[in-house]
Design goal:
Strand content of chain A: 25-35%
Distance between the termini of chain B: 64 Å
Distance between the termini of chain A: 61 Å
Largest interface: A-B, 55 and 49 residues
Number of helices of chain A: 9
Largest sheet of chain B: 7 strands, mixed
Number of domains of chain A: 2
Radius of gyration of chain A: 20 Å
Structural class of chain A: alpha+beta
Strand order of the largest sheet of chain B: 1-2-3-7-6-5-4
Number of strands of chain B: 7
Radius of gyration of chain B: 18 Å
Oligomer: heterodimer
Order of helices and strands of chain B: EEHEEEEEHH
Strand content of chain B: 25-35%
Structural class of chain B: alpha/beta
Order of helices and strands of chain A: EEEHHEEEEEHHEEHEEEEEEHEEHHEH
CATH architecture of the largest domain in chain A: 3-Layer(aba) Sandwich
Shape of chain B: globular
């Protein structure tokens, strides 16, 4: 039943350097499958595609592939954390431990997970950057982000505010997608950047009314337990994928019963309050990370912000957003 | 356009249960260890007090434990997965027992499921935590066999 695994540098002979959400990741593993699954994040690949930029911070990721572990039935993590440590368990098989203070992730994964590029990109890497982000200076923000000619349109909002619906509607209009649910914001010598990890968009089952592309698909239970369509924006909506953008507009989303689409100025203070209040509390052991996060929230909040209330058809709202961005460039 | 002054948000989510209050506190001597325990469960406190032995004349090493009874973690303990790197040891025995130990900071942090009874806690879980703690303080005194034995002991009482 029990097997002890030591990762004291033994057995993790394969190394790589990755660039994920603006952070530099030193990967050590015993698994060629892991190296291959993460190859698209290799630093040279990233820089060639997205342009060299300053890394926010470094982290280590030590991954042990254990062929004896069963495959995870679902990538539905269960998290717990105390002080600087965070544990993520995937049903008694894949296991991740994060030492946030030391900026290190340690994991044991099954062979099926080791080579599962989709699981890495849609669940495991967002998990790692989400947990370590405050310490890295790559701050997770509850926001979608799209890119209009190298200018980022960020769509922050609470759960249910319509971020994914608006993201999908803009993608159908030909706008490049950076991220859907979570965007990772850095502030380096290059200035503010909004980064994405996964081009996947989660849409509730009733979204099929607005997006006929979903009619042939079936909604399923997602990693946070809700039933939704979990689709790749590039293949489903024909969107282009960008890994990063420069935040230019912050459009805070709010649903309304009225069939309209209204933009109202939103103050920097209100924007900052939203980011601070919706951020996960951090323990006193991570006070330095919390201060760095607040600095980035403050810098982001100084970008031009509006409240976007909409209750109209997503397509009409997306068209209104495009007209608004054109008028306020 | 009238300026907007706020938008609804999910206020300060505690996804990880980091901020479960742990009002019960004690310092317990167990051989050469002085363990300062913080917990939300008085049963954990009394079980550790019973496991500890007074030995005031010995020199002692300080270690901090935080043990959280996790009401949302059902079931008993199951086969474990454990990981150890430079200074961190982590043991995953299913949803009902997750424990991480940071030897450098001298901290043990654990979530114990609501269904893990006091007998299992006293006879298996706490002895395992004590062995992990002793291993962190004096690694050479804690052999691989002892390590294995500690986990097996925890599983026997499943």
């Amino acid at each position: 039943m029990h097997d002890s695994r030591s990762l004291n540098g033994i057995g993790l002979q394969l190394h790589d350097e990755l660039r994920i959400a603006g952070a530099r990741c030193v990967l050590r593993t015993n698994s060629q499958r892991v190296i291959s699954a993460l190859a698209s994040w290799r630093r040279e690949t990233r820089d060639a595609r997205d342009g060299e930029d300053c890394a926010a911070g470094d982290f280590e990721m030590n991954v042990l592939e254990d062929p004896a572990l069963p495959s995870a039935a679902r990538y539905e993590p269960r998290f717990r954390g105390l002080h600087h440590l965070v544990f993520a368990d995937f049903g008694g098989t894949d296991t991740f431990v994060f030492d946030v203070a030391s900026r290190r992730a340690t994991a044991v994964v099954s062979s099926a997970t080791a080579g599962n590029e989709l699981a890495w990109n849609s669940v495991l890497l967002p998990l790692a950057v989400g947990v370590l982000g405050a310490a890295l200076g790559s701050i997770p923000v509850h926001s979608a982000c799209l890119d209009l000619d190298d200018m980022g349109v960020m769509l922050p909002g609470a759960s249910g505010a319509g971020k994914s619906t608006m993201c999908a509607a803009l993608a159908r209009c030909g706008v490049a997608v950076v991220s859907d649910g979570w965007t990772y914001v850095t502030n380096t010598a290059d200035g503010l950047r909004a980064h994405g990890i996964s081009p996947r968009v989660k849409l509730l089952p009733d979204a099929v009314r607005h997006f006929p592309q979903l009619q042939l698909l079936a909604p399923a239970k997602t990693s946070n337990g809700e039933i939704a369509f979990d689709v790749d924006a590039t293949s489903t909506f024909g969107a282009r994928l960008r890994r990063q953008s420069v935040p230019r507009w912050l459009l805070f989303l709010q649903r309304t019963e009225r069939s309209e689409c209204e933009f109202a100025p939103f103050s920097a203070e209100a924007a900052r309050d939203f980011f601070e209040n919706s951020a996960e509390r951090l323990p006193e052991q991570l006070s330095g990370a919390a201060a760095r996060r607040s600095d980035i929230f403050a810098a982001l909040s100084r970008r031009p912000s509006w409240l976007l209330r909409y209750g109209c058809e997503p397509r009409k709202a997306a068209e209104a957003v495009l007209r608004f961005c054109e008028a306020t460039r | 356009m009238k300026p907007a002054d706020s938008v609804p948000c999910d206020r300060h989510p505690d996804f990880l249960k980091r901020f479960v209050p742990a009002p019960f506190r004690a310092i317990v001597r167990a051989g050469a260890l002085a363990i300062s325990l913080e917990t939300n469960d008085s049963g954990c406190l009394s079980a550790l007090a019973a496991a500890g032995r007074e030995s005031p004349s010995e020199p002692y090493e300080r270690f901090h434990w935080t043990m959280i009874r996790d009401e949302d973690a059902p079931g008993g303990i199951v086969g474990s997965i454990d990981l150890a790197d430079e200074h961190l040891t982590f043991v995953n025995m299913g949803p009902a027992c997750l424990v991480g130990l940071d030897a450098k900071r001298r901290e043990l942090l654990a979530f114990i499921g609501a269904d893990v009874d006091e007998h299992l806690l006293a006879e298996s879980i706490l002895p395992l935590f004590l062995r992990l703690t002793r291993a962190a303080i004096a690694p050479r005194s804690f052999t691989g066999d002892e390590h294995r034995h500690a986990f097996q002991a925890a599983l026997i009482h499943e």
